[in-house]
Amino acid sequence: MADAFEFSDHSHRRRNPLTNSWVLCSPHRAKRPWLGQQEKTSEGDKPAYLPDCYLCPRNPRVTGSANPDYTSTYVFPNDFPAFHKQQPAYTPEALHAHASSSTTSSGAGDATNGRLDSIMTDLFQVEGVRGESRVVCFSPNHSETLAEMSTDAIVHVVRTWIDQCKELATQPHVANVQIFENKGAAMGCSNPHPHCQIWATDDIPQEPAAELSSFAAYKTKRGTCLMCDYAALERTLTQRLVCENDSFICVVPFWAVWPFETMIVAKQHTSAMAKLSDKQVHDLADILRRITCRYDNLFTTSFPYSMGIHQAPIGPAAAGNPDAHAEDSDLMHLHLHFYPPLLRSATVRKFLVGFEMLGEAQRDLTAEQAAERLRACSETHYSKQ
Ligand SMILES: [Zn+2]
Ligand SMILES: [Zn+2]
Ligand SMILES: [Zn+2]
Q: Could you read off the pLDDT of 333-352 as tens digits, one per residue?
């Protein structure tokens, strides 16, 4: 049927059911010849230790204190935190005082009274945010990324994440724990020493809040978990599966925006890191090693990405937050997102600009094609082949 709609040929939009956003797919554009440059980028020396790295063992940090001579993972408070545990509570009066202070002599009264006051209350919505941020070094080795670490070493990283989540869940200022890794200069990462950050806040940030609301709506409509249903669907269809083990799948989401975006999803419904069994901890480390290794092998380069964990709200501050859906603490289905920027080679990246800033996200390579390319990559790191 020459006139039938083909997903691999015809432009279409795909909806992200987690965030209710859309991505425009233009698959015919990916039929241009693949120029995939396979040459290695110059990675230079890969020192295990750098005297001026503030994350390496024994080195001083900006605060003056020195890192311990750590041998596995190492957690410390971010020296430049995005927020603090304690600050005055936000009140609407603060907004009016702020507005008054920015209008000079004449008109100051008008700006904070009557109709303008009511408009301002509608348009300038503010919430105070308290929290804390920590840094987790994955390894004392300055150049050893997840892709090159052993599964056992990554198990230590996963256990550190879990210990941090359990401890933060007891803190009064915590409602959400966001663990994320920015890797590579392309993602604005200032230091190649393998590390991630943990931002714990007393609010639920926008992305997990949108997902929680989607999980709730889906459960109301179908009576089941959105991600349990999605994982089962992808395991049946297999087109977008990259790899799997007993506990997790790695998939290029149907609605992926970034060319080689993936999601790691727990096969069994699990809402939070702290609920993972020993077997699941091992399997999460296993699939993290395998996908990061495939990424590095794709363009024979240390693959940049932003990666993060989405889990149920935790901590006392979640109880009073409507975004937390505290009435159903089991609503969220644990998953990890990888958002890598590379498109065609170690140096050719995708930018979300133009139509993507003004219209909506767009991609050429389909999710199915990306999964096929990742499936073809080895799970032995190129540096060890
Ligand atoms: Zn270092
Ligand atoms: Zn589920
Ligand atoms: Zn998510």
A: 999 999 999 988 888 889 88
